[in-house]
Design a protein that fits this description.
By secondary structure, the chain is α/β, with parallel strands linked by helices. It has helices spanning 2-14, 22-34, 49-55, 70-82, 119-126, 156-174, and strands at residues 39-43, 62-67, 89-93, 107-112, 130-138, 178-183, 189-194.
């Protein structure tokens, strides 16, 4: 397993595939352990790095991960097989915004780490599949230090993307159905928990 993780980190580096930073994934794994998370939905598998590590956090942790890029999807399947995690990690080849999850499906943790410009759409779509005590965790909220400095960015595409992340952060802060905490870990992580309306 350790060897596979090292290989995946090298593959990601060589092929310029974004995977979670080490302290970010460590935060996620610890969260899963401490909160007895059993059922995880991941939006954006890439090569399966975070899905495999999340699944390894506990004997009964299962991960469903969605990936729309075929090359990444096939690499992810290959890596899942290498560590014999076929029963723990279910890889779905589809655009997350087009996926139809079975009615009544519920996840203890939904992890958003796909197209940054679509974060709010992902949140709004998948929040209905969250278990009552579940959380939605989002990665890359600092986006390499650009977030909060969108006005200084010269590249039009980058500026638009960073603005979308900034808007998403505002959306989280103002969302009264969820209480969100922001952590300065990895590339910036948020943990959004449903607000209980029981008196």
């Amino acid at each position: 397993m350790k060897q596979l993780i090292v290989e995946m980190e090298e593959y990601a580096k060589e092929n310029n595939i974004p995977i979670m930073q080490k302290d970010g994934i460590a935060f996620l794994m610890k969260y899963i352990k401490n909160n007895e998370i059993k059922n995880v939905l991941e939006i954006g598998s890439a090569i399966g790095y975070s899905a495999i590590l999340m699944a390894s956090s506990g004997a009964d942790v299962k991960v469903t991960t969605i990936e729309r890029d075929e090359v990444n999807y096939l690499e992810c399947i290959k890596n899942v097989k290498k560590c014999n995690f076929e029963s723990k990690v279910n890889v779905v080849f589809q655009d997350a915004l087009e996926v139809n999850l079975a009615e009544g499906t519920q996840y203890d943790l939904i992890f958003i780490d796909a197209a940054k410009g679509q974060y709010q759409k992902f949140f709004e779509k998948f929040q209905y599949f969250l278990a009552s005590n579940g959380v939605i965790i989002t990665d890359n909220l600092k986006f390499h230090g650009y977030v909060g400095k969108s006005e200084e960015i010269e590249s039009k595409n980058l500026k638009q993307l960073v603005k979308k992340i900034e808007n998403y952060i505002e959306f989280l802060k103002n969302n009264e159905e969820f209480e969100t905490k922001f952590y300065d870990v990895g590339d910036g992580i948020s943990v959004s928990k449903k607000v209980s309306h029981e008196n």
